Amino acid sequence: MSSTPETAQTSENPEHGEGGKYSVKGKEYTRDTRYITTRVTADGRDGFPVEPGRYRLVAARACPWANRSIIVRRLLGLEDAISLGLPGPTHDARSWTFDLDPGGRDPVLGIERLQEAYFKRDPDYPRGITVPAIVDTTTGAVVTNDFAQITLDLSTEWRRFHREGAPDLLPEAHREEIEEVNQRVFTEVNNGVYRCGFAGSQRAYDEAYARLWTALDWLEERLSGRRYLVGDTITEADVRLFTTLVRFDPVYHGHFKCNRNKLDQMPALWGYARDLFQTPGFGDTVDFWQIKQHYYVVHEDINPSGIVPLGPDLSGWVTPHGREALGGRPFGDGTPPGPVREAERVDPTHTPLP
């Protein structure tokens, strides 16, 4: 997909780079946040009512923005209500592809490239082919790729189809604080690592690096005396931070040059990340092999050799974290999700699981 001179396009969100190019020389990285904002809602006000079995969530495990939606879907028990399509970890400038599926086609949508679903929505779709995307299986067209709104709507608009014991990821008493934390985490951490990795000048990198570590130090202090980011239960805020933290040592530390120190050298953040990883619904959605394949292969201008590092050692993710001593109730008045469904299990050779 084409990019404006001012905007470096990313493979996960929003746009694909052209021929593996993700940074623009001399430019600060700026994320394009224009999405298809149509929503699937309980009242169907945008023309797409919540309807179990009608929609397919296409979400690559490699992508942190898509990983959020996989986690929320699992925590809320929406597996029967909305199916899951899983593109492979690598792609070209055109689109995510379903190369992990038999015959290289999504078994429900029957397409080879996610691009096909975008072009069914708009044959002249001008921007990036991004994940996560919700596709209407009755038409084969994308409904929305607004990743931030997708997880919020899974919690609110799809409530009727939540499993018994589903946690409240957006407790009303903490909504304002969750939104404040989410905003800072998005600009400074979730997107901050990309501002480092895709910086087109030394100055842009230096400024991005300073902002990122200011925010990570703030989080380290915040999580030193509390188990979760907001309140005493897991919320949407924890989901959003986790998908960046779980990628930090494997890719952001080296590949994106976010290398003041590794995550495992920050006691509170490292304990917090392990606590979540070992919580059902989090680590069982993570595929470290796919994550490394994606970043090191797709970002050709950052890693022109295409070599994927064998490290780091991932065994630490399943070591005791001791965070229970801080109290908290992971699922509040709810319960953990059940076992991962056979068709959605991460290859055990790709990631350590507790």
From TrEMBL:
<feature type="active site" description="Nucleophile">
    <location>
        <position position="63"/>
    </location>
</feature>
<feature type="compositionally biased region" description="Polar residues">
    <location>
        <begin position="1"/>
        <end position="12"/>
    </location>
</feature>
<dbReference type="InterPro" id="IPR047047">
    <property type="entry name" value="GST_Omega-like_C"/>
</dbReference>
<feature type="site" description="Lowers pKa of active site Cys">
    <location>
        <position position="252"/>
    </location>
</feature>
<feature type="binding site">
    <location>
        <position position="96"/>
    </location>
    <ligand>
        <name>glutathione</name>
    </ligand>
</feature>
<dbReference type="InterPro" id="IPR040079">
    <property type="entry name" value="Glutathione_S-Trfase"/>
</dbReference>
<dbReference type="InterPro" id="IPR036282">
    <property type="entry name" value="Glutathione-S-Trfase_C_sf"/>
</dbReference>
<dbReference type="Pfam" id="PF13410">
    <property type="entry name" value="GST_C_2"/>
</dbReference>
<feature type="active site" description="Proton donor/acceptor">
    <location>
        <position position="194"/>
    </location>
</feature>
<dbReference type="InterPro" id="IPR016639">
    <property type="entry name" value="GST_Omega/GSH"/>
</dbReference>
<feature type="compositionally biased region" description="Basic and acidic residues">
    <location>
        <begin position="13"/>
        <end position="26"/>
    </location>
</feature>
<dbReference type="InterPro" id="IPR004045">
    <property type="entry name" value="Glutathione_S-Trfase_N"/>
</dbReference>
<feature type="domain" description="GST C-terminal">
    <location>
        <begin position="168"/>
        <end position="298"/>
    </location>
</feature>
<feature type="site" description="Lowers pKa of active site Cys">
    <location>
        <position position="295"/>
    </location>
</feature>
<protein>
    <recommendedName>
        <fullName>GST C-terminal domain-containing protein</fullName>
    </recommendedName>
</protein>
<dbReference type="GO" id="GO:0004364">
    <property type="term" value="F:glutathione transferase activity"/>
</dbReference>
<dbReference type="InterPro" id="IPR010987">
    <property type="entry name" value="Glutathione-S-Trfase_C-like"/>
</dbReference>
<feature type="region of interest" description="Disordered">
    <location>
        <begin position="1"/>
        <end position="26"/>
    </location>
</feature>
<dbReference type="GO" id="GO:0005737">
    <property type="term" value="C:cytoplasm"/>
</dbReference>
<dbReference type="Pfam" id="PF13409">
    <property type="entry name" value="GST_N_2"/>
</dbReference>
<feature type="region of interest" description="Disordered">
    <location>
        <begin position="319"/>
        <end position="354"/>
    </location>
</feature>
